[in-house]
Amino acid sequence: MSDTATDKKRRQLPPLYRGEVEIRADTADDDERTVEMVWTTGSRVLRRRFFGEDFYEELSLDPKHVRMDRLTSGGAPLLNAHNSWDARDVVGVIEGASLEKKRGICTARFSKREDVGPIFQDVRDGILRNVSVGYRVYKMEQVEGGDGQTPVYRAVDWEPYEVSIVPMGADPGAQMRGTDQTAPNDCEFVTRTEEGDMSKTDDPTKEADKTRANPAETPATPETVDLNAVRNEASRDALKKERQRIADLEKIARAAKIDDETLRSWKESDITADEARTAALDHLHEKSEEVQTQSQRADASVMEDEREKWIRGVEDSIITRAGLTGLITDAAKARGETVKLDAGEFRGMTLSEIARDCLERAGVKTRGMDRQKMVGLSFTHRSSITQSTSDFGVALENVMHKTLQAAYATQPDTWTRFCKRGQVSDFRPHNKYRMGMFGRLDKVMENGEFKNKKIRDAEKELISAGTVGNVINLSRQTIINDDMGVFNDLAAMLGRAARLSVEVDVYGLLAENAGAGPTMSDGKALFHADHGNISTTAGAPSVATFEAARVQMGKLKDPWGAEYIDLRPAIWLGPLSLGGQARVVNDAQYDVDVVNKLQVPNKVRGLFSDIVDTPRLDGNPWYLFADPGTAPVIEVVFLDGIEEPFLDMMDGWRVDGVEWKVRLDYGVGARDWRGVQKNPGA
Q1: How far apart are CA 657 and CA 474, in angstroms?
Q2: Where is the composition biased (Basic and acidic residues) (predicted)?
Q3: What is the pLDDT of residue 543?
Q4: Which of 285, 322, 396, 433 is the most interior residue, by most CB within 10 Å?
Q5: What is the pLDDT of residue 639?
Q6: Which long-range contacts (CB under 8 A, 24 or more apart) does 110-116 make?
Q7: Are 356 and 381 in contact (CB under 8 A)?
Q8: Smallest Cα–Cα separation from 165: which of 133, 190, 192?
Q9: pTM higher than 0.70, yes or no?
């Protein structure tokens, strides 16, 4: 085996890049906008086609071999993918760098420019993870290989000068990037050769090396490749093509009316002009379909608006002619609303004339049509817009519904003044619970423990909802005869009847068990001596009887008997014959029971916030109720909380016309006996 010799050769070497390094996202500082990076590990990478041969490159991390002045100066640039054409390509600065534990570490600070913000965000989120370092090599030494094997060169004099954020790790074999405009530099290559083989080589480069080994001979001229010229030519060609692409994209965007944001995204992407044309055609197709759909919707909307206007006009005409204006406006006023009725073109039209107009609008020719057939068809002919009930039928149903609701809302009642409103979700019996009181909290001694508070079973009562209702009809004869009584009589009466149904049931509940009220869950009537709610001071309304009932109610305890409820009477309920006396006692400044004596202040003055007297109670008994919101005694529950009667229309089977079903789903039940006192009277 021949002895090993060394051969030195100088060549022009361009700037190099390697991307086997990474960003430490977990070190990101949002306030300072800094992050720590590993910019090199010096690992071995393959360099291809370098001066006719491939070789492996290693970077020595011996501090004596690395020129760190630029990176440690605090001014080395942090670039966007090694681009340096524009100042905007600089996204930050390298604030410091060092070599430690066979790695190059640096701290990069990102610019606060708006366009750099997204890059920093992606770095801290771990989306952009790759870094590439740009460096120059001034001396390489062969450390392995040769003799048919790919040689390994180690850079023992090299200089890092910039770090870049890159979307993906750069090709380790990359020699340069087209965007770099820095000229190549001289680099000394120290090669190991076998002396015995050097005389046999046919490689002219090696022959030149042999010649340079002889000090008597003149050194060969360094091999120079004008990479700068090649690079500039490629850059000019790429720039020309990019300008043409941008011009084509702008032309396509203008023709297709593409928005600025989309055009901007095209320019920033790699989309070609052909791809942009395809996207523009898709955009135009979508816009065309959208315009067509909007046009269809607009037409349908206009037709629907005309239909609704026709229905409202017919409704107002029927309400006005039926004399229901006052009822409808009073009900609206009770709701805090205002109603403006305008019959317009339908003013004075009969029901049969309105039916004919409905059919004519729907394209049905009615000339010469028998009135019986015409009226019948007006009920069954479907709307061209909704494909549902005819517009004439809808208008009639709306009038019936408004009349029904208005009559229901304006019908006086008394149950709402002393009963609680509630709701149930179905017709099954529902539990209404009465919880007790905890009493006082337990005392906790120093360093003592908190004790559990026992919760006893609650009392409960059952309440269920049922259905009441009736059917009314509107015959063809009624339409032909223009009989408005079906609206101002039948519909209004049914609305009032629905309201009165609840009223009757509430007082019927109080009358159960010969006036003792319904049977409660304990097997005793609502009013029972064991419940402590029958006054022991019987008599007509007076200061004495009111005071006795007040005291008796205030002494009642909760369901567990743990604590006084301390209730106060708020509502007086009794027959009409006693209502006047109750008001006198409640409002008097002085005790009306005191006769021929000095005036004595009335100690029960203003005890009641409401005096309810009704013909549905007779005889001598009267009642004191606490506030139903605090201590409910009787509760009226409505299915799903709907308190108004429901109206449903169907073509008549039993009559020649149309039928409406009116129903109300509700239930009445007793909740508790503690919030009421009954006085049997004198």
Answers
A1: 6
A2: 192-212
A3: 94
A4: 396
A5: 93
A6: 110/33, 110/34, 110/35, 110/78, 111/33, 112/33, 113/88, 115/88, 116/91, 116/92
A7: no
A8: 133
A9: no
